[in-house]
Amino acid sequence: MKRFLKQAALIAGKDLAIELSTGEIVTTSGFFAVLVAVIASLAFFAGQEATEGVAPGVIWVSVAFASVLAVGRTWQREREENALAGLLVLPVSRGAIFAGKAVSVAIFVGLVEAIVVPVSALLFSVDLIRMGPGLVLIALFATPGIAAVGTLFGAMTVRTRARDLVLASVFFPLLAPTLLAAVAGTRELFGGAETRELFDYLALMGVFGFVFTAGGVGLFDTLIDG
């Protein structure tokens, strides 16, 4: 297990080092997410009703679409100059490669969330001081599932020509449980629910993230070779 964690940290560190030098993924994904939030706020804002009924959907739809960009670009880097082949011949387990890529994607998605949530809070007049802890908790449970699904199916589509279209086609249906739970939990939070009342939504997102993370570690070897 210790060796597995070291290998995963090595893969994640590689992606993070590239991102620190370029800022490409977080910048483009964050800008896109903010653009979606701004357009939605202009189209749907109608006072307090929009805060409770529209803002949760805007936040998580923005994050979901930005996640597709982040995942696609993460695997596109491995496709360039046949870097994927070099990655696969490294003396590390395939499961560790998946785990490392998932961790880096989770960090990218988390940074996008850190951008879009305050912007959405400003646009929809959300009291971020009062809602902030609940939103952070929801994001902590939602992000691993988003990263695991994106990493798994990003690897499956990395060699296809229409990979962005194929990734989006499989990504959103499979992400539905996490997205629906995140939206519903955020709606309840904005409606005045206490954090302890969000347990069912958090549990659903946690189970979803665990299943796809475990499945990704176990199936990645077969999927990437196929």
Round the Cα radius of gyration to an integer and report it: 18 Å
Class from helix and strand fractions: mainly alpha
User: Could you list the spans in which at least 5 consecutive residues all have pLDDT below 50?
Assistant: none
Give the distance, in angstroms, between the N- and C-terminal Cα atoms: 26 Å
Total helical elements: 9
This entry's quaternary arrangement is single chain
Largest sheet descriptor: none
Q: Could you say which overall geometry the principal axes of the C-alpha atoms support?
A: globular
Helix content: over 70%
Task: Please trace the helix and strand order, writing H or E for each element.
Answer: HHHHHHHHH
Report the mean per-residue pLDDT as an integer.
Answer: 82
Beta-strand content: under 5%
Topology, number of strands: 0
Task: Outline the fold blueprint.
Blueprint: H1 2-22, H2 24-44, H3 48-53, H4 55-79, H5 83-88, H6 94-123, H7 128-157, H8 163-190, H9 199-225
Helix pairs in contact: 1-6, 2-4, 2-6, 4-6, 4-7, 4-8, 6-7, 6-9, 7-8, 7-9, 8-9
